[in-house]
Amino acid sequence: MSSDRRKFLKHLGTSVLLTSASLTSFAAREEQEIRTLRAQKRVGPNDKIRIATIGMGIMGFNDTNAALTVPGVELVAACDLYKGRLARAKEVYGAGLFTTEDYRDLIIDRKDIDAVIIATSDNWHSQIAIDAMIAGKAVYSEKPMVHQISQGLAEIKTQHDTKMVFQVGSQRVSSIAYKKAKEMYEAGSIGKINSIEASFNRQDALGAWQYTIPLDQSVQNVNWARFQSNAKAKYDYDPKRFFRWRNYREYGTGVAGDLFVHLLSGIHFITGSKGPEKIYAIGDLSYWKDGRNVPDVMSAVIHYGETKEHPAFQVTLRVNFASGDGGSSTTKITGSEGVIDLGGDGEGFTIRKNKMTQAPGIGGWDSLSTYTEAQQKALIDDYNKRYTEAQKTRQKFPDVIYKAPDDYNASNDHFANFFDSVRNGTKVVEDAVFGFRAAAPCLACNDSYFENRVIRWDAENMKIV
Ligand SMILES: NC(=O)c1ccc[n+]([C@@H]2O[C@H](COP(=O)([O-])OP(=O)(O)OC[C@H]3O[C@@H](n4cnc5c(N)ncnc54)[C@H](O)[C@@H]3O)[C@@H](O)[C@H]2O)c1
């Protein structure tokens, strides 16, 4: 038995766990209990964490709600550049909520605020995060950590210098399914990794970022000047550029920064990788020709060289916003002895495991039948003498299926990890180095596509070569 396989079985504890149903219920129950205990932990008055959310759009509300599932967390302020969203924040969280269009009001003037959630468009993540850490706030920054690769090292340095708690918001790295998949991967469940395919396929206008624009949008109700104040190229007010900013490179990061980054965050988390060495991407604007200047179908081929953390492997990433398959997402990690297939948004996985036969095989789709009868007989006799029946049979193992509980939400756990760190100084699961090492290769996909070249990346030092 190989040492990988021994480690794998030892890790599982008993072979009974190899049956899919028992692993599913065992793991889900175990994790559920841990989370329930954590949620019930008593929180004293001094344990209160006061937060503000900057960027009160779709994710601002989602993140705030996830943050508020953690005991002792209180929302005291919100910042946004559209008046309607500030009014909505008061409707949802109470008329007493302090609101502003200038995030500096929250990080500089409000000493009572401990932590900020940054859920703005991508173009503002880095600047607000740096300003907030310097002002002494813990930061939960939405992904991608930066809008430009050139911003990464300065943000990491600020975190290092200020020692403020900082976490990036790729919630799948806190997901119980990803945690379990990582354990199984490290236990050798799929042998030696060699390739990964990961994708998002969508087939609807909202999925392609044509979000609803409010009827009262106007230059009076939107702080357009502030929104584009850090952009090199300035445009006249355009509601599409504001409410559907993802479609424009000036404010968003395209499908690569928006969605590849989820895929690479999960891949780096499971494999322990610091990142790739070579990146190439192609793209097309295939269907959503609504004025956007980023592709709606994009594919990348990314090479990870051999390191002490892992053997060399290849990653192919794809996003398709006009996909006739209706909508799906996966990350399929392939090794020499199995595949970890993670579907959806981190709520489960299946491990399919097969072991290569020791005997090479003879006959069937082979050259054997092209030789004379006498040759064929001699070859088969010789083959049967050399290999036992066991050596000739492919070992197929039962699938291992893991599924998180139906109501599971990885964002809640991601915030629980963040606030644990704010309270107890425990290590965050997705620090600035991890966040940048996931974001930079994705942003390099954009550079590769727009500049039509292969990008070389020094993952250790986090620099374009
Ligand atoms: N982790 C996830 O699963 C996930 C999912 C969706 C979005 N996101 C990320 O969350 C962020 C927000 O996405 P969204 O879909 O909520 O966008 P959105 O357009 O719905 O909301 C963004 C809000 O940010 C505000 N904003 C922009 N610049 C600002 C500034 N300087 N100061 C204050 N407010 C500002 C805008 O007014 C807008 O209301 C993006 O970076 C996105 O990548 C993460």
Question: Can you tell me about this structure?
Answer:
The structure is a single chain. This protein has 465 residues and is α/β, with parallel strands linked by helices. It folds into 2 domains: 3-34 and 177-358 and 392-408 and 432-464, Dihydrodipicolinate Reductase, domain 2; 37-172, 3-Layer(aba) Sandwich (Rossmann fold), CATH 3.40.50.720. It contains 15 helices and 16 strands. The chain has helices spanning 3-12, 20-40, 58-67, 83-93, 104-107, 125-134, 152-162, 176-186, 224-227, 239-243, 254-271, 373-386, 389-392, 410-424, 432-451; strands at residues 49-54, 73-79, 98-100, 115-118, 138-141, 166-168, 193-201, 278-284, 297-304, 313-320, 328-335, 338-343, 348-355, 395-403, 455-458, 463-464. The strands form 2 sheets. Strands 14-13-12-11-7-10-9-8-15-16 form a 10-stranded mixed beta sheet. The chain has a 6-stranded parallel beta sheet with strand order 3-2-1-4-5-6, sandwiched between helices. Helix 7 runs antiparallel to helix 15 (432-451), helix 8 packs across helix 11 (254-271) and helix 11 (254-271) crosses helix 15 (432-451). The longest helix is centred in the first third of the chain and has 21 residues, at 20-40. It is elongated, with a radius of gyration of 25 Å. The two termini are 42 Å apart. Residues 1-22 have low confidence and may be disordered. It binds nicotinamide-adenine-dinucleotide. Nicotinamide-adenine-dinucleotide is lined by residues 54-60, 79-82, 85, 103, 119-122, 124, 142-143, 169, 171, 226-227, 245, 258. One of its GO terms (molecular function) is oxidoreductase activity. Pfam families: GFO_IDH_MocA (PF01408), GFO_IDH_MocA_C3 (PF22725). Residues 1-27 form the signal peptide. This is Gfo/Idh/MocA family oxidoreductase. Residues 236-340 form the GFO/IDH/MocA-like oxidoreductase domain.
